[in-house]
Amino acid sequence: MPTLASALERYRVKDLNAFGALVLGDRPKRKAELVEAIAVSITAPGRLATVVGQLTPDQAAALAEAVHEGGGVHDPVRFRARHAKDADLGTRSRWGEISKPSLLHLFLHRPYPAESWRVPDELVEPLRAEFPEPPAPGIRSGADLPNDYPRPTTTTVIRERGRPEREVSHEPVPLSVRETEGAARHDLAAVVLHPKPDFSTG
């Protein structure tokens, strides 16, 4: 996708109106004019910084990682591993389609459903200038353990009009600690100091 306009041209007018509601006041009726108006609202001088400033911290993190680490490609598996959640591309329908796009979705598109979410080529370098390079992934550690940990439980609930939705709740579970260092030293000594007998015949 060389340009934002070329990415937007793949959408239906219904979808474009949803995008336009995020960045436009009055929206043109014709598809070609709507595509141009949305693209200009992002690419016109001074507009990119304004729109980027409206992203949530998680949306900004997804976009920064895509342009700095993925060459413009959003990696949902990597993002989920780093942030323990999916990137907010918008509200999904019961069929899994994005029915109400988020502001992040204005920057991430995919030419076909099976392909990766990508930032249009013309926006990759300008967006790199808007975001600092993300910190390297790490594992948080501490000297003290908590008394319990939140165990997630996913349930399916039926909303109005029979629409199923997933809800995630967390139940505190007491954390039990088992000291294994002493046993490990004992096992290590047994292996090192008492090698297995050699039953081979010579």
Largest sheet: 2 strands, antiparallel
Distance between the termini: 70 Å
Q: Residue-averaged pLDDT, rounded?
A: 84
Side-by-side strand order of the widest sheet: 1-4
Strand content: 15-25%
The ordered H/E elements are HHHHHEHEEEHEEH
Low-pLDDT ranges: none
- The dominant shape is elongated
Radius of gyration: 25 Å
- Strand segment tally: 6
Number of helices: 8
| Fraction of residues in H or I helices | 25-40%
Keywords:
202 residues, alpha+beta, 8 helices, 6 strands, 39% helix, elongated
Describe the structure.
This protein is α+β, with helices and mostly antiparallel strands and 202 residues long. The chain has eight helices and six strands, in the order H-H-H-H-H-E-H-E-E-E-H-E-E-H. It has helices spanning 4-8, 13-23, 31-43, 47-52, 57-69, 76-83, 121-130, 181-193; strands at 73-74, 90-92, 98-101, 117-118, 148-158, 164-174. A two-stranded antiparallel ribbon has the order 1-4. A two-stranded antiparallel ribbon has the order 2-3. Strand 2 (90-92) and strand 3 form a beta hairpin. Helix 2 packs parallel to helix 3. It starts with a helix and ends in a 9-residue tail after the last helix. The mean pLDDT is 84.
Summary, kept brief:
With 202 residues, this protein is an alpha+beta fold. It has eight helices and six strands.
Map the helices and strands:
Blueprint: H1 4-8, H2 13-23, H3 31-43, H4 47-52, H5 57-69, E1 73-74, H6 76-83, E2 90-92, E3 98-101, E4 117-118, H7 121-130, E5 148-158, E6 164-174, H8 181-193
Antiparallel strand pairs: 1-4, 2-3, 5-6
Helix pairs in contact: 2-3, 5-7
